[in-house]
Each structure stands twice: as C-alpha cells, then as structure tokens.
Amino acid sequence: MAFNFPWHLYLMALLYVLAGINHFLRPRMYVKIIPPSFPKPELLNKITGTVEILLGILLCFPYFSKFAAIGIIALLIAVFPANLYMYQNPKASFGLPKYLLLLRLPLQALLMIWACLYIR
Questions:
Q1: What was the pLDDT predicted at 4?
Q2: Of 2, 19, 54, 97, which has fewest CB within 10 angstroms of its CB?
Q3: CA 59 → CA 11, 43, 73, distances in Å?
Q4: Kindly report the CA angle at 103 between 7 and 117, in degrees rounded to 5?
Q5: What is the pLDDT of residues 58-70, one digit of tens each?
C-alpha cells in the first residue's frame, strides 16, 4: 500500500515526535512552564511527551491520521495554559523577550489550523 500523503503531513508528524522526545530529554524545561495550579507537573510532562510521540506516529497512517489530527488540536488546547503561564511569569520565560512569548500564543492557533488540514 503506497501512502499518498503530502510532505507537510510528514513534517508535522516529525515535529510532534521530536517535541515529544524532547519532553524526556529536557523534562525540567517543560516542568518549569506548567502552571503551579496543575498537580504533578513531572507526570503531566511525561504524559504530554508520550501523547505527542503517539499522535505524531499516528499521523503517518491513513486510517489514523484524522483521529491524530483531532488529538493534536485537543493537545494544543490542553497545553495552552503552559504557554500563557510562560508569557505571564518571568521565571518560566527562559529569559526570552516578552514579544516572542506573546507571538507563541497565536502560533498555537496556526498549529491547530495546520492540523485541521488532515481532518477529512
């Protein structure tokens, strides 16, 4: 069976797999941006990383790509509080300029739109 998927779907898949792996390589980076009101940040980091890897892999299979894209949208919504916390809290900003942190917020919407391309 030949996969007739566009290159940008595989790019998205690769980005999510790599991001998920990074959750395990650099856990402190991700734990740092989880708002303190969320319980068990280390566990949340592992769950998020695992889900990113799984969704990235599932994107590559035609039968699962629609469900993976929906899952990615749900994941982006779920992690939005971390991006907002990073913008609002200088201790979680990694010293990045405020304008870059602000630009990250609408980037979530663009990633959701990208995922919508694969919901048929």
A1: 65
A2: 2
A3: 10, 24, 12
A4: 30
A5: 999 999 999 999 9
